[in-house]
Amino acid sequence: MQTSIRPALAGFALALGALASCPVAAATPVVNIAGNDPVVLSFATVGDSRQDPTTQDISQRPLSAQDAHWLQNSKAWSRIMREVVQKKSKLLFFNGDMIMGYGNADLPATWPATVDGLMATDVARTYAQYAFWRGMVATTLEAGTYVVPVPGNHEVQCSTKVNASCSSANGGKNALAVNENAWRANMGDLIIDSPRFSAIVGQAAANFTVNNNPCPAGGPCVDGLSTDQSQLSYSFDVGGSHFAVINTDGVGRDSHAPTAWLTQDFANARGRGAKNFFVFGHKPAYSYYYAGSDTTKANGLDADLTARNAFWDLIETYGATYFSGHEHIFNVQQPRNAAWQVLVGSGGSPFDASNPNQPGLLPTDRMYAWAQVSVHQSGRVRIEAFGFPDNYGPTQKLWSVQLAH
Question: Is the pTM value of this prediction over 0.85?
C-alpha cells in the first residue's frame, strides 16, 4: 500500500512526529532528541530550477529579461541557496534540470556564418545555460556549502520540443552520449573536487572513483546501458553515511534506475560499515498525483513497474531514503510504509500544479521547497522540509520525520 503524506498548511508550519522504520537496523534504539547526540553531517537537496521558454507559471509572468534569456528562475533558486547556507548545510544535492537544455550538444553540421547564428546552436545554448547556473551556485560553494550535481532529463536528453531533428521515439525525448559528455564538461569539476570537498565539509568524500559507475572504463556495462556513466551515476561515503547519485535517463534506458550497479554499490558500502544510505536521482520512483493531475500518466520510474519495483526493493532492503525531482512539486511518500521518497522538484521551475484555484490542491503543491537532513553521531537521521509560497512569503517548516537507525 502506498502512503502519501500530503501536509496541509494554512499559514502555519506542520511537523509530523512520526518515526520511519529502517528495516536493516530497526533494533537500534533511537537516541532522545534532547540527549547528547550532536549532528555530524547536515545536507540539503532540491531540484528543477530551470525556466521554460514557452510555458511559465502564472506567478512568474512576465519573466524578467534575465530569466527569459538564461531560462532560470533566479529569484526562487537564489533564495533557496541563501537559506540552505543559513542552515549550515555542508552539502547541497541538486537533483537535475538545472538548465532547459533538451538540445543536441554536438558541433553543428554546418558552421554558422555569424555570431548570432553560432549562439543560436544547441551546443552554444547548452553551455551558456550551464555557465549561468554555475555562476549562481559559485557563491554557495564560497559560503561553505558544497554543491553535488545530479543529472536530469533536460541535461542528457534531446527533445523535439527544442530541436525538431531529435528522435521522435520515446515521446520525442532521448538521451544522447554527446549530452552526457556536455554534462561532464560542465559539472565534472564538482564530481568530485576532493580538496575543496574536504575543506568545505570537514570530511573527505571517501571511496569515490570515476570507475564506480554502471559502465566502468575497461569493463562491461550493466543495467542495459551502452554509454560511459562516469560522473553521471556515482557514489561516495562521508563518515558512516553512503551517498549514491543515479542517472535515471542513461542512453537507451530513459526512466530507469541503474539497479544492478546500485545493488553491488550498496553491498560494498555495507561491507565498509555504512549505516545510512541516501540516493539522489532526477525522476521519482512513485509519481505524485495532486488534485487535478492525470492519474493515468506515469511521471517517473513507474513507467516500467517491474524495473521500478526492483529498484524500490533495494531501497527497502537497505532502509535507504530516495530524493528526487522531475515533477515540479513537493511531496513525501512511504510507498510501502517503510522507506521514504522525498520529492523536491520545487526549486523554481513552473509548478506542475499550474492552476492555483484547482479544488483540492494543497498549499504545499505550489511552494518552492527543499529538504534538510541532519545525521547525528548515533546514526539517527532527521529529515525536514522547508518552503515558501509562490508569492515569496515567509519560509515555513512543511514536514519532519526521524528515521530510527
Answer: yes
- Structural contact between residues 334 and 20, judged by C-beta atoms closer than 8 angstroms: yes
| Structural domains of the chain, ranges and CATH numbers in brackets | 3-404 (3.60.21.10)
Whole-number mean pLDDT of the chain? Answer: 91
- At 250-303, the pLDDT tens digits run 999 999 999 999 999 999 999 999 999 999 999 999 999 999 999 999 999 999
User: Alpha-carbon distance 74 to 85, whole Å?
Assistant: 16
Using pLDDT thresholds of 50, 70 and 90, give the confidence band for residue 170: confident
Q: At what angle do helices 74-86 and 122-142 cross, to 10 degrees?
A: 30
Give the span between the Cα atoms of 21 and 319, in whole angstroms.
Answer: 8
Q: Are 208 and 195 in contact (CB under 8 A)?
A: no
pLDDT of 7 reads 42
Residue of 112, 109, 146, 106 lying closest to 127 (CA atoms):
106
As a residue count, the chain comes to 405
Over residues 80-121, the pLDDT tens digits come to: 999 999 999 999 999 999 999 999 999 998 989 999 999 999
Comparing CA positions, the residue from 325, 321, 337, 292 lying closest to residue 384 is 321
